[in-house]
Amino acid sequence: MKFGLGIVAMTLLGGSAYAQLPGTPPAMPDGPPPLLAPQLVATAENLRDKALEGNAAYPLLEGLTTEIGPRLAATDAEHRAAEWAAARLKAMGFENVHLEPFKMTAWIRGQETAEVVSPFPQRLVLTALGGSVATPPEGIEAEVAIFKTYDALLAAPVGSLAGKIAVVTQPMPRTGDGSGYGASYQIRGLGPSEAAKRGAVAYLLRSLATDERRLPHTGTLQYLPNFSGAPGRPAPKIPAAALSVPDAEQLDRMALRGKPIRIHLTLTPTTQPDATSYTVIGELKGRERPDEVVLIGGHLDSWDLGTGAIDDGAGVAITAAAAKLIADLPERPRRTIRVALFGAEEVGQSNASYAAAHPAADQARTVIASECDFGADHIYAVDLPKGAAASSFGRSLGRVIAPIGAFVSSETAKDGGADLESLVGVPLAQLAQDGTRYFDLHHTADDTLDKIDRAQMNQNVAAWAAFTYLAADSDVDFRALAAKP
Fold first, then answer.
1. CATH class name, domain 110-268
2. Pick the catalytic residue: 194, 345, 346, 371?
3. Where along the chain do its domains lie?
4. pLDDT at site 30
5. Radius of gyration of the chain (CA)
6. How much is the average pLDDT of 350-363?
7. 49 — alpha (psi -120 to 50), left (phi > 0) or beta?
């Protein structure tokens, strides 16, 4: 955990004064800002407690993973998921429920096999990376060049891997905040193009994973244009796949024997041009300022190996359930709450598509935005936009979530989630979850409903309900707070 006790204490006490809101006591000149109006804080506490008793999140997730299952972007399964989600949002009382379509090329997994041909013949367990091109129908057989680190691959001269299969076996470190994944992402995302630049005919990596099961972790790659040793000539697109952790370690042990290793690899993915994905929108219209929007959500698509319970059916269910608790209050919040269930996040198509459907004027009216996309384990901190942690909003939220083991961090939110990256000028928040075990399951066949801890999921809903309600029913202006010196 990267937050110390001193930060917790400072956050709970607050810092500089903040403009008084209706119904709040005056702030002391040099003391902490006042809490928000007592009825707002009390309602947020009630929402928190109701969420802990039980809410709609688990039934929603159970339905999504059971009735739809895997939801690969822009496929029939994702289309069914979008219709399913829209029907559920309508049944839960959301308004303006609609689908926002966008065009893309769908990638569909085919066969994926690999085996060591020599010197120690045996099968390998792997899975194609999303977006990978196929091998020839008969596959590729070639000698491998094993690199213990990604930097070692980058140090290889252009042309030095001609005719070989490049293999990177660098492990990903386990961290609670996901930073190990961020630091390792380029191994998967850019590795295929770097290997091709050096002449490789295929690329394998040790899965970006923290588990030791013989289950590979998929994920996207990025073929880069104009990325070869010859000026103006792009590196070819080569087939790419992720090995399970035990299989990557097996290749490392084989390499210690000092004999050339040959692998036969077959990948048969296909693509479907002019396919369609959807973002599903549902709103709770604000009673006083309906044009001002608090945006929350998760992504509806998933990889096809598991049923997408952790990534990101959980985020869909948590945010929708939090908004449902608010919808059931006797009075709607002042501002509109918009739940966005994004399509095609896993292949990087969602954030630009949402921004295109909600251009500058809509973004200017978005008060704050945050996405839930890191599983369903315990929320321990909330990072807010600049200036908000020490405000009346931050102090009030801190008081509400302290009993459930969370605090408002003094750190400024760096992002609100991958689906919000294309928004311009929108204040962002991040509800930080414990990700210690997330990359044991991420992008694997083990991403299934049984991995959800219902008590921790309820704690997530409690934190999201409190955060969303206070943002929607208060007068907090996150842009103005950020502008203060």
1. alpha beta
2. 345
3. 5-107+274-483, 110-268
4. 64
5. 24
6. 94
7. alpha
CATH number belonging to the domain at 5-107+274-483, selected among 3.10.450.60, 3.40.630.10, 3.20.20.10, 3.90.1010.10: 3.40.630.10
Question: Is the pTM here over 0.90, yes or no?
Answer: yes
In angstroms, rounded to a whole number, what is the distance separating the alpha carbons of residues 193 and 322?
Answer: 42
User: What does the pLDDT look like over 324-356, one tens digit per residue?
Assistant: 999 999 999 999 999 999 999 999 999 999 999
Cα angle, residue 217 at apex, residues 114 and 201 outer, rounded to 5°: 40
Three-state SS letters, the chain: CCCCHHHHHHHHHCCCCCCCCCCCCCCCCCCCCCCCCHHHHHHHHHHHHHHHHCCCHHHHHHHHHHHHCCCCCCCHHHHHHHHHHHHHHHHCCCEEEEEEEEEEEEEECCCEEEEEEECCCEEECEEECECCCCCCCCCEEEEEEEECCHHHHHHCCCCCCCCCEEEECCCCCCCCCCHHHHHHHHHHHCHHHHHHHCCCCEEEEECCCCCCCCCCCCCECCCCCCCCCCCCCCCCCCCEEEECHHHHHHHHHHHCCCCCCEEEEEECCEEEEEEEEEEEEEEECCCCEEEEEEEEEEECCCCCCCCCHHHHHHHHHHHHHHHHHHHCCCCCCCEEEEEEEECCCCCCCHHHHHHHHCCHHHHHCEEEEEECCCCCCCEEEEEECCCCCCCHHHHHHHHHHHHHCCEEEEEECCCCCHHHCCCCCCCECEEEECCCCHHHHCCCCCCCHHHCCHHHHHHHHHHHHHHHHHHHHCCCCHHHHHHCC
**For 115-136, what is each residue's pLDDT tens digit?**
999 999 999 999 999 999 999 9
345 catalytic residue (yes or no): yes
Q: Are 358 and 420 in contact (CB under 8 A)?
A: no
Mean pLDDT along residues 274-288: 98
pLDDT at 26 over 90: no
26-30, 309-313, 369-373: range with lowest mean pLDDT: 26-30
